[in-house]
Amino acid sequence: MQSPALRLIVEREMEIERFVAREYWTIESDLSTKGKDFAARLTHFNGEKLEQFTVENAARAAEIEAVLQAKAQGHLEVISVEKKQRRRNPSPPFTTSTLQQEASRKLGFGAQRTMRTAQQLYEGVDIGGETVGLISYMRTDAVNLANEAVAEIREVIKERFGAENLPDEPIAYKNKSKNAQEAHEAIRPTSAARTPDSIKDKLTPEQIKLYELIWKRTVACQMVPAVLDTVAVDLAAGEGNVFRATGSTVVKPGFMAVYQEGTDDKPADAVAVEEDEKLLPPMEKGDITDLKQIRQEQHFTEPPPRFSEASLVKALESYGIGRPSTYASIIYTLESREYVTQENRRFKPTDVGRVVNKFLSEHFFHYVDYDFTARMEDDLDAISRGEKEWRPVLQDFWGDFKNQVKEKESVDRPGVEMMEEACPKCAKKLAKRLGRNGYFIGCTGYPECDYTRNVDDAVGASNEPEIVPDRKCPKCESNLVIKRGRYGKFIGCSNYPNCKHMEPLEKPADTGVQCPECKQASMLKRKSRYGKIFYSCARYPDCKYAVWNLPLNEPCPKCAWPILTIKITKRRGTEKVCPIKECGFAEPYDGEVPGAEPPKAVIEV
To answer: 24, 137, 327, 540: which one is catalytic?
Structure first.
């Protein structure tokens, strides 16, 4: 099952590499009426409807803006107001797949962590004198709930959220997956009356987070739909030029008062306004609004995002690959064999993963086909139901597999690409090979000729290690040389393996902030093996104190911890925060961030 999963990740990466960004522009207007500001986007110009790539350059955008400015004369007229009411239904209760997806989105839990924590909740926790299983069985693909559980959930809704949020009849959910076995009911609290707050002190932080997620989803699935009023207002800037503003208000929150399902990625057309986030001022046809400005906005299309754990599990489930008990093990296998790595919680294939996928796709395509595993699952299900005999099914698989393995015995080793270039040492052909640290170029005359070089080195480059001038190994006084490992270049001892001294190629920058734990050295700016910046004590490994955010030489005014850190998020901006999580101190930071990189150009889709 990990083979088609690897294929998904590799093919997505290849799609990203082939992607060519395309420029386009939108025309926005900032408006005001009745003391409230709002924005609108141009949808029609000179009677023509604007598509995504109608305006492809700055010159055309400026031309349109000039025409609109002249036509508008500082005002836009409301030409239509369209009001609708829509209902949003709650999501069904959790299956293994959807629990792993939501725990990834909302809690940042990997599939293994989610299942380990769910196992603990299922097996039981001491909540004061007795050990109680807090959730139902967590390996399931069913969305149905037991009648007694639904009855208790409805009582909880009526008591805590009011009878107006309780539908007249219980809501029944049906599974859309044809491969669902539904041997167990959906994942739910064993007792909905056992609220997260009532047992918060008895659980670990991981356990309470996951239990609260399950509890909220289960309760919300039996509540009334949310009701929203949506408004679309068209405003004219002269004949045939139309701006549109959209917004919505929640009339009746219903289940949304308890829980809303997360999403993996933004939609492709991110220029489209998120209706639920805007509230428009009241307007009627014929109203005149004040035009504050017309803006030209440049955008670029973006490639499809890499798979996260949530989106990968969702894709596997959509193809019918795997079962509730296997999603976590599929991801674990891919990572433990170093077929993939995670960057910013997204999967990226390694060189090894690419080679393995290429070899399987070329020589064993039948087994990495997305439908193969689903068909095999169907056959196994039929065997379990007594509809098929297991021997013929196994014989069909094994006979074909054995023949293919025999045919491929003479296939060249994967990961070797012959080159036209001659070895500068012995004049034999060079080849691009896959080693434990990724691709390298080596002589085909190995082991008689040991010439190698990095893929990005110049043609004919020497393979002799570069000696670090004016320095000796602090452990054995041998020469220090620049080496390359799986995470890039580093400085190591030339006497390896007798001496295993190593250090980063670039000396970590000193922040000048004293380590608050040992108070014997300062904090250094370092880079993790995956390229993420962090700050740790210069005495590592004797002192292992480290933080992810830039340390600031100021004591916390709340708990008196010797340092604060500067944290930057999209939601809250730049803040001074205490690194002690239990303290919780945070306040806005307006000063210059020391050592901060200049802001990058924002690329929108």
So the answer is: 137
